[in-house]
TrEMBL record, chains A, B:
GO biological process assignments: transmembrane transport
Name of the gene encoding the protein in the UniProt record: sulP
A GO term from the CC aspect: membrane
Species for this entry: Massilia arenae
InterPro entries: SLC26A/SulP_dom, SLC26A/SulP_fam, STAS_dom, STAS_dom_sf
Protein name: Sulfate permease
Transmembrane region(s): 12-28, 34-59, 66-85, 91-113, 125-143, 163-183, 195-216, 251-271, 321-343, 349-366, 378-409
Length: 558, 558
């Protein structure tokens, strides 16, 4: 902990300061926008942007990760709280902080129990589908705020809100598409141009806020943030045990997604930096502390944001000091006069949200998966559909189920090759791919998968089919060169295969068992009960068994 | 369908008839006992023993499977219905049939969608733990019926019930332990002796029923079955949509367990028979039809019972005709005068349940797993604990989660070996296990696991660690001889590794890519973007790269 601070070199300071300022300027509109997504007053987004980056800097392992409000986690917060409290009420805010506290405790517990491996339950296509589904849900949810009224044919349009909302939207889209190229044409350095483009939301929000008193938009009925109390509120918890119970399962799901989202962003950055080492169990502790910190200051669940972290990195962040500077600047924003925040128009904030989440619609994963592995592409689409139809929480479970389902489905179709000898050599190959010789009475099968509960029945079934096709088999050799592991279920499966084959007069042999697998098998009864032998190589098995079987002469096959 | 009937040979008939009779004699007390476990009147167990074996014989694929009431499924039924209706009421019976109908429809749908691979979601240790936990819950639940009153220190004991219950228990245990050996000593054939022992519950129940009028036990307060209407009731469904909704999730879980329990029993028998082929999607249809049939006759969820199926097989069943004969005999039992059933004493029925489920406590899986793979043993114990603490339904989910958790946990610790060349050969081996030579600037790593979302981050992390240890590396060769598959997540992972290494001045090469894996990779952009080459063998890579790297001379290692 804080090793980076003890080793701090002054050369890192300018980069950390500039990154700290840039991220703070990005975080103010983003934090307020994502508080809106969570159904909370925008200022709560600033409450949730002070302690979290500070605590993550103390406990986390990524040096450039920017922890704070994030769109998907805000959506999950909104969907958790919807049945429990009305947005805008005191209870709603209390429950949001309580949810952050519980998610934080879940993350801390996982970190102390060292079960960070749980993040591996989501495949990337499923994560991509989850993100796409969530982005669409968030954008759709903000449309109402963007136009200042309900989305319906018979609703009378509120033109000032619509003009401000779509005007902001147009400016933000143009800034995203054209600002950086334009600045580069004007000979601005590419890094600076890119960062300026990322700060466009800040300037659009400031401009729109200035317009409100100038054009008296608030008196025309454009919704604004409203009065913001200075300073930080403290922790407030609901006393009803029903609320604690209702928040437990959502806290588990949100904790899981907080970790998953933060890790995938941090990993992408770590690969870019080269050699930075993330320790997943310490990441859990860092994110847990950040969420507890958010709760203590009246915030809501937070996580690492890949877009902000990328800006932090690009703006020169060298160490966690950058995040600490960001936190300090956000605290100052609350201590400074906050009157101007009251006039911030919500249609503009909605526009920043829509542009941000539409930027999360990344179709390249779908394109790649569609070409490379159709099942993964379908899992992606099904997860996105699950989020849209069943909601974001069920979407997480759909995603886990589909990741695991695809895994088990693939395992249930193991690849098993009939081996033959390449004439005159000691090499054995798949008779379907090579011209290799086999010998009657001897069947050699290579199982191309680790043996575990997910494929043990399918493997036994496939072996049975091969035995029906090769009815004269007296010796069956399983070549285990591609078997990296055998779990307890598969150990039983092999034992049953051995007993069943013995009854049918077929001897079972093993060959090319890997070192670690053999070490394990020595702790079991299988080797003692095996009707045949364990051969070091397929060639050894052939030499011994091809001679001893009834009709001994090799014949070509394949 | 019914292929077995078209091919029926008369030689199979004697075996089928004797098995049909024996199983019917076993099924009458068992069916009534498991109805009691489900909280239903004992006669419902006979309703559920007529259509199910008949329909399974028509649609299923195992020739000796005995489908009907089964302890664990009855426990799940009881636990589902407990919050919805009081045992003994009309609604309770209606909901039990409705649950069978819905579970049956779930199974039929799974069969038509051909998703039988779902049965692979449970590892064997977890299944064993689930069975142990359920057996303990069932036995505990019957203690009250066994002693004819509540289990409490201040409860006044009901001596007639206690005497009858424990007397039955003692007889049943003695029959199970000693009857078969005794009969064998008397020169009875071993098969016949074993079957006679299995029929002991029938004789104990008949004897106890005869005692009731003889000793006027019913007038002393010993609970009995009570009046049984002759004939079969029809299908009765609850009209409240709330009930349909409440039963949906339990129906999914029960359908899943019905399939899992039946398949594991059928597979064990198929292995014994040798060469019998089970088609999992047709098994789903057979079990689905059986449950729908149970519902139509006022029954409750049913499945294949491994203990009854084993008796069926041992008693000579050759085809599905045996099950049809069983079904016919049970139908006769209902048409015949059913007055005697009214006097059947419940303490004796409870005793048969306790003896039956204690027979399910198989500790050998735990013993084997404890020695072979501690994680599997812990998953077994945790699943048993989950059933005991959280209940049988949550236990199923705990089991799936633990199976998957153990899988992902193992995947998160991939085995990666640094390879070196065995001097003077073309063989490459793990430098930790063999004395093999390496060359500076060239690092060869063999990944011993298929690459998928569960291990892609862990693999990248391990590679990073090896690169830190071998800091002078200019060429990294991943030897993929043990990689049987690369999913979309791992494809992205390799792409990111390639980009990250390129930035650090390390060239990434692949070697010994398997045929099917290479076929897949050709559909992706990875090979085009790879900074290095794809080599056919590790030796090729060594020959090309050991020369080209900075400090070319081989040096011994390991």
């Amino acid at each position: 902990m804080l090793q980076w601070l003890r080793e701090y070199r002054r050369a890192a300071l300018p980069g950390d300061i500039s990154a700290g300022i840039v991220v703070a300027m990005m975080m103010i509109p983003q934090g307020m926008a994502y508080a809106l997504v969570a159904g909370l007053p925008p200022v709560v987004g600033i409450y949730a942007s002070i302690f979290p980056p500070l605590l993550y800097a103390l406990f986390g392992t990524s040096s450039t990760q920017s922890v704070g409000p994030m769109a998907i986690v805000s959506l999950m917060t909104a969907s958790t709280l919807a049945p429990l409290a009305t947005p805008g009420t005191g209870l709603h805010g209390v429950l949001a902080a309580q949810l952050a506290l519980m998610s934080g405790l879940v993350l801390l517990a996982c970190g102390l129990l060292r079960i960070g491996f749980l993040a591996n339950f989501f495949s990337r296509p499923v994560m991509s589908g989850f993100t796409i589904g969530s982005a669409i849900v968030i954008a759709w949810g903000q449309l109402r705020t963007l136009v200042g009224g309900p989305i319906a044919l018979d609703a009378s349009p509120h033109w000032p809100s619509i003009a401000l909302g779509f005007g902001s939207l147009a400016l933000l889209v143009m800034a995203r598409e054209w600002l950086a190229p334009l600045l580069r044409c004007l000979r601005v350095k590419p890094v600076v141009a890119d960062i300026a483009a990322k700060l466009a939301p800040m300037f659009v929000v400031l401009g729109a806020t200035a317009l409100v008193p100038l054009l008296a938009l608030d008196r025309m009925g454009v919704a604004t943030t409203g009065a913001v109390p200075a300073g930080l509120p403290g922790l407030n918890l609901a006393t009803s045990s029903g609320h604690w119970q209702a928040l437990l399962q959502p806290a588990l799901l949100i904790g899981f997604m907080v970790f998953l989202i933060s890790m995938s962003g941090a990993q992408a950055l770590a690969l870019k930096r080269g050699g930075e080492k993330l320790v997943s169990n310490r990441e859990l502790v860092g994110l847990g502390a950040a969420n507890v910190g958010s709760a203590l200051s009246g915030g809501f669940p937070v996580t690492g944001s890949i877009s902000r972290s990328a800006v932090n990195f690009a703006a020169g962040a060298n160490t966690q000091l950058a995040s600490m500077i960001t936190a300090g600047l956000l605290a100052l924003a609350l201590v400074a006069p906050t009157g101007w925040l009251a006039l911030l128009p919500l249609p503009t904030l909605a526009a920043t949200i829509i542009v941000a989440v539409l930027g999360m619609l990344d179709w390249s994963t779908l394109r790649t998966a569609w070409r490379y592995d159709r099942a993964d592409a379908l899992a992606l689409l099904a997860t996105a559909g699950g989020v849209l139809v069943l909601g974001v929480e069920a979407g997480v479970l759909v995603g886990v189920a589909l990741s695991m389902g695809a895994l088990i489905w693939r395992a249930s179709r193991p690849h098993i090759a009939v081996l033959g000898r390449i004439h005159g050599t000691e090499h054995f190959r798949n008779v379907d791919r090579y011209s290799a010789e086999t010998t009657p009475g001897l069947l050699m099968l290579r199982v191309d998968a680790g043996l575990f509960f997910g494929n043990v029945d399918a493997v036994n079934e496939r072996i049975d089919e091969e035995l029906v096709e090769h009815a004269s088999t007296a010796h069956l050799v399983l070549v285990l060169s591609a078997v990296n592991a055998i779990d307890t279920s598969a150990l039983f499966g092999l034992g049953e295969l051995n007993a069943s084959l013995r009854q049918r007069g077929v001897t079972l042999h093993l060959a090319e068992v890997k070192g670690p697998v053999m070490d394990r098998l020595r702790d079991s009864d299988l080797l003692g009960q095996l009707s045949g032998q364990v051969f070091l190589s397929a060639a050894n098995a052939w030499d011994r068994l091809a001679g001893s079987s009834a009709a001994g002469r090799p014949q070509p096959a394949g």
